[in-house]
Amino acid sequence: MAAVPDHTEHSAALFDRASAVTPGGVNSPVRAFRAVGGVPRFMTSGDGSHITDVDGNRYLDLVCSWGPMLLGHAHPEVTAAVQAAVARGTSYGTPTEPEVLLGEEIVARTPVDKVRLVSSGTEATMSALRLARGFTGRAKIVKFAGCYHGHVDALLAQAGSGVITLGIPGTPGVTEATTADTIVLPYNDQAAVTAAFAEYGDQIAAVITEASPGNMGVVPPRDNFNAFLAKTCTDNGALFISDEVMTGFRITKSGWYGVDGVRPDLMTFGKVMGGGFPAAAFGGRADVMAHLAPEGSVYQAGTLSGNPIATTAGLTTLRLATDEVYAKLDRTALTIQSLVSTALDKEGVPHVIQAAGNLFSVFFVESEENAVIKNFGDAGAQVLPRFGAFFHAMLDGGVYLPPSAFEAWFVSSAIDDDGLAEIESALAPAAAAAAAVQS
Ligand code: PLP
């Protein structure tokens, strides 16, 4: 049972101390609650579907470490495998067996022929871009507004004005030269892709997209967008890179690939495949991957790449993620979506829920009439203060949601009927809190 949080003084004290030594008090910006206000909760433990903060408040967790904790927290078999691995030694800087096993598992579950392990999703997308550029001998990259691929300089680009524009730096510290080869297009817009290839076709090394975007809220591909991108790339000698860092091994045994079956030239993975430890990967066509050092000349490396603890945690997680687990995740996600809609409808709060398999998010739209979120522009047209009120009421009710309206909600297979009942009882006051905010 989630305890209704009534004390936050230990979190507040830690946040003060953290802010004295760390910019903004956090080691990754969205953790800071800036979008919703209030004091971020400092967690101290997790068990199954719940996490507990330093004040002893227990929450039903719908963030799941932003995706990795597919099986819930401190799963006994993952914990045992990790403990045994740690006891043997933690890192050697040599090849080890668990990396081979994890590589085999990824190759078996996905369409990639070969895979290279890295330590974060950012490293995976950065390396995939370098490989695509090295393989094609071309410089330009196409990405979509609202898709997040980690904090790779070239991918931290915002669209300039107009539909096809070269990227402008999305943050200070990224130079114009770095984003000059990044073309940013609206998501789900086939005409914009066609026009970009008409203008720059022989200079484009790759199109990178989230397989089904979750970083502007959940905005699935429409009208076979991925198949269209794959074909456009093939027709123009560019590579199609599908970023499955969020969706990979979460939505199905492979990821979004298991839903639309579009075979990319390169793919990126992270989150679930590390089982809560830093492990990520990129992989793809054998002829492309052959260009990677030491087989080929495109350099890429990492001191802790394929770390035996991280690969053991990831491998154990994937082996436990059976068809039954994915079926349960789907059922749980559908139940939560229906509970959310029922509660918001009861209070007359306009909203749209969009899902990609078991990933979903709730958009607090002005009006439900014709409300479909197809791209970043649509996602931005929300009554954001409603989400803030809803978020805090859920938190007070013992349910931990992503602290931003532009994020997917993540379920774990540890959520049982009691957990669903906790969500249901938190939802009634949260819907009322959202209703109380005027648009
Ligand atoms: N790609 C996608 C689709 C992601 O959602 C993320 C992180 O949220 C990344 C890449 C970056 O991964 P990491 O945070 O491990 O660097």
Automatic annotation (TrEMBL):
Its main location: cytoplasm. The keyword Glycosyltransferase does not apply. This is Glutamate-1-semialdehyde 2,1-aminomutase. It catalyses: (S)-4-amino-5-oxopentanoate = 5-aminolevulinate. It comes from Kribbella albertanoniae. Pathway: Porphyrin-containing compound metabolism; protoporphyrin-IX biosynthesis; 5-aminolevulinate from L-glutamyl-tRNA(Glu): step 2/2. Belongs to the class-III pyridoxal-phosphate-dependent aminotransferase family. HemL subfamily. It is an enzyme of class 5 (isomerase). One of its GO terms (molecular function) is transaminase activity. It holds the Pfam family Aminotran_3. The modification N6-(pyridoxal phosphate)lysine is found at residue 271. InterPro entries: 4pyrrol_synth_GluAld_NH2Trfase (IPR004639), Aminotrans_3 (IPR005814), PyrdxlP-dep_Trfase (IPR015424), PyrdxlP-dep_Trfase_major (IPR015421), PyrdxlP-dep_Trfase_small (IPR015422). The keyword Isomerase applies. PANTHER family: GLUTAMATE-1-SEMIALDEHYDE 2,1-AMINOMUTASE, GLUTAMATE-1-SEMIALDEHYDE 2,1-AMINOMUTASE 1, CHLOROPLASTIC-RELATED. CDD domains: OAT_like. It is found in: Cytoplasm. The lineage of its organism: Bacteria, Bacillati, Actinomycetota, Actinomycetes, Propionibacteriales. Keywords: Cytoplasm, Isomerase, Porphyrin biosynthesis, Pyridoxal phosphate. Coiled coil: none annotated. Its cofactor is pyridoxal 5'-phosphate. Its EC number is 5.4.3.8. Homodimer.
